[in-house]
Amino acid sequence: MLIEDLRVLDLTDHRGEVGPWLLARLGAEVIKIEPLGGSSARQEPPFATEVQGDLGSLQFAAYNDNKKSVELDLDSDAGREALLSLVAGSEIIFDSGPPGYLASAGISEADLTSANPELVYVLVTAFGADGPRSNDPASELSIAALGGPMSLQGVRERSPLKVSVPQAWRHAGAEAALASLVGYTRMQTTGEPQWIDVSAQAAMTWTLLNSMEAYEVQGYDFERAGSKVALALTIDLRRSASDGYVINAPIGATYAPLVPWMIAEGIIDESWGDEDWSTYDHRALSGEHTAMTYQDMLVALDELCSRYTREELLMRGIEIGATFAPVNSIQDLLNVNHLEVRDFWRPFDFPTANEPVRRAGGPLTVDGERCDQPSNVPASDSSGPELRSEPPRVRRTSNIAQKDGDLPFSGLKVADFSWIGVGPITAKCFADHGATVVRVETEKRLDTLRAQAPFKDGEFGINRSNFYGSFNTSKSSLSLDLSSEAGLGVARRLAGWADVVIDSFRPGTMDRLGLGHEQIRGDNPSVVTVTTSLLGGGGPMSSLAGYGFHAAAIAGFTELVGWPDLGPDGPWMAYTDAIAPRFITTAIIAALDRRERTGEGCHIEAAQLEVGLQLLAPELLDYQLNGYLATRLGNRDLHMAPQGAYACAGEDEWCALTVVDDDCWIALQRALDHPEWAAGSELSTLEGRQTHHDMIDDRITEWTSSRTAEEVESVLLGAGIPAGKVQRSRDLASDRQYLHRDFYKRLEHSEVGVVPYAGHQYKIRGYDHGPRAAAPALGEHTYEVLSELLGMTADDIARVASEDALS
């Protein structure tokens, strides 16, 4: 395990529990501090229907199965003394707020730092620990609305949508784990306590990917369009197979392998084989005449898909080099053979289970071993006697004599061979926090994101894309062609220089290039290498190439966004690209911490599919234990009603609200001035409101449609009802909470001038979390990297350039 000598105290409820759970997966000892009678997290749905007591919550079971539990009465002197004794011997505390469990109990920062002057304290909140929204009531729906993703999900003809299972607090919890280790590393640098504030709203904004700054960059927002995405052109990703749906992008770059198959099927004639598909997109988008149109391609592809099952399309596609990603359900996931071969699933002992139950295994592997532990969901206070009587633990202490400066990763060297989303976002964290990160890229095989919107001022250019820019701040760009021997020589030299080497190629590619872990460690024995791919190596689907929207379909997320009477729309863009970096970055920091203590490097492998499934862990248990198959529900919720996004005055303006319980329903009636339609006793219960949800939606819309979204939000928040305007990127740029948190950073780019960049999803008190510099132009730092970092002479550089390896 990477961090097995770290102790973490978990005072969270459901709003932050994923953070300490992830650190426990990496080896930390995590102690859940609960009030007498147990944490409220034990009351979060879904529940195992036949389990009584404090172990029935499947949400709790999924994200607490590797923790110890102790009950402490913080209203008593003995309980406070016991807590502060645990604080003195721990490195990190997680809490949920505001104001936080500890603050609510009257335990101050001074109390905590008196017990532990090098404490790392992480508070997970909806909007931030302070600021104009900090005390607003919040729900999963309102956070998704205010964070932005709802504005881009669903069909235009209906209201914007969220993912139909809880996601906001799971994203925020994973980000909290990352933030805690950034803070812990900074504590090692400064010797000072770290106060960290994680915003769930900001975590959801990061799921927008290329839309985070779209309006300010290009002058307009992207719009929701169901299963269509705006790449170089707007395309519908969803295809109908004979037994469901698959995701496939019908563009020239991916069409060539399909042509012989469709000719053999009699769908198209042999003239299609004469088309130069490698240049088709460029010619078609430039207005040149082509023998067939995109519509022709779409019709042919849809006919092919209609003849085969999802599995048949997937496996035949792998054979011929085409990508058909099945839109899987939770049930389908449990039968994916690739996960069996990779030994992903783990047994899960649960009371009353009549058949074996499996849970998601650890999110990644280290040196071939999955980061995991046997499941043991703790009863409340199950470790209480042991922990209350243990001798004081000696915690780790900082060693600031060896450190220099305020940036936690100053002096760290990272070679970033990755592209698109997951790898670059991972490396960005280290760059923004002080590491020297060299991004390796080439114009001969351009990073796809450099050719995707939003472009500065709407003008295409490989250095003008903020899709690329958002994920590559604070880095240096080295233009290097890895298809040449001279280029590979430089790459191997760079790998020997680096502390961390990251790639996102298909499994096995780095080994074939002579850049695999074993090859690098021959000259660089303490190196940490990281490889991330769609599905991971060693399985029957490992060679499948694709993007995050393919991984989202395979991992079950696409099925969870949409309306019950329509096909699945899926989350915006490449959803798993927003999930995986949080887990991978956390693991890298843990690996660097172990290297600092032991001198040992390691190899980390992360499959986007397996990381993504961590955020569906309760739903996987719910299906196996209760038979409930999570699916798309629009914006409705099984446990709360009404809930939805309601049309407001203006063009496509919406406000989301959640009535969380019966008291909240009474508050809504009061806010609406006690309308007659809401007074009936049949609406006084959850069951009644679920039954009459359509009618309630219509009546609420009558009220909202004559008011602005801002006015509706204000009235509802004033009544204590979780609510939020469905914000687009133009709204986020002026969101009062983001202005307070200084979320967007505007930096000078070498080619396009001042550009906005979304900041990190957490703040560390007294520290500017970056980004520190704008994203680089392609090859902007090539000479500097070769000469200053790698020590190459002018003659060395000229020789490599003469072989056309620096382009």
UniProtKB/TrEMBL annotation:
Keywords: Transferase. Residues 373-383 have a biased composition (Polar residues). GO terms for molecular function: CoA-transferase activity. It holds the Pfam family CoA_transf_3. SUPFAM superfamilies: CoA-transferase family III (CaiB/BaiF). Residues 356-402 are annotated as: Disordered. PANTHER family: BLL6097 PROTEIN, SUCCINATE--HYDROXYMETHYLGLUTARATE COA-TRANSFERASE. This is CoA transferase. The lineage of its organism: unclassified sequences, metagenomes, ecological metagenomes.
